[in-house]
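Let's practice the habit of predicting before peeking. Look at the sequence and jot down your guess about where helices and strands might fall. Then scroll down.
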Amino acid sequence: MDKTRFVLLFTDKHTMDGLMMIIRSMALLLLSLLPLNVTVALPQSNMTELHIGSSTINVHFESSFTSQQKQKLLKWLGATANTMTTLYGEFPVKQSNIHIYTSSRTSEPVPWGEVWKNGEYKINFHVNPNFSQQDFLDDWTAPHEFSHLFHPYPGRGNSWFGEGLASYYQNILRSRYGSMTEQLAFQKLYNGFQRGIKNQKRTGLTLKQASAAMRKNRSFMHVYWGGAAYFLNVDVRLHQSSHGKQSLDNTWLKFKECCLGADRYWPLHRLIPKLDELSNSSIFSDEYNRIIDGRTFPDYQSSFEQLGISVRDNKIILSKTGEAQALRHALAKQKN
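Done guessing? Here is the structure:
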């Protein structure tokens, strides 16, 4: 869930009681648990720093967490932050803050997350620390929320854009990082598309209408996965039309270099033409015009065919040879 100063959907009901100080004697143990290119600073203060390349993430814990729980959560956050570097080689922002709160919900390790962009980048996670390390590493919430750091706020009523990008990358980037297989990543995309189709059939809304009143109409699945289908189609077409010279990834890298900022507002009618300009194409606009007012869920089958993905009994089958496999690997193959 991406939030900015321009739109407030929820308010935080948790009160910060103060933060427990993490003692220096734990430093070596923490470093041994984290990925190799993550470093941790443990100052005598109320936060812990994660260093991902040249980027710094300040992690603030609610006071109730134990030292063991903090170790587990830091490993989870470090792995997720490194997953994001598979998009264009570095973490998307130089400075950010993460606030971790406890949740009593027992159904999943991370029942809620949200991103704020209000002159700074801030992510709130509500977690149940009783889940295992692997449960946290397998959870989708943190990759989804971190993916919101790649894009600006596109304006009220355009949730499909940011939520769609995050829903697409939460699977594709985890495949690249090696925390899930390519098979599982595309299966999760397919499963999401089926939920979106079911939701769209129930409401009968266009993607624009569903996004404008997402909460009122309970059209979350249509918005999230319809947006993901848009970005899958864009990514496939960019690769194909440029013989691999253009991609969704390098378009976002160019956007970061020219235009990304925590307090920058990019209305969609300006953002999509800018992405066309940066990709030397009209693909972002073409796909937008094709899907935004349609009375059916956005087509994804054509992209699946180009990627060598077929479906039998709701299980995807990946081709093992040819151009389709090469294109699919360009999107999702694990980076060495």
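How did you do? The chain has two domains: 2-150, 159-332.
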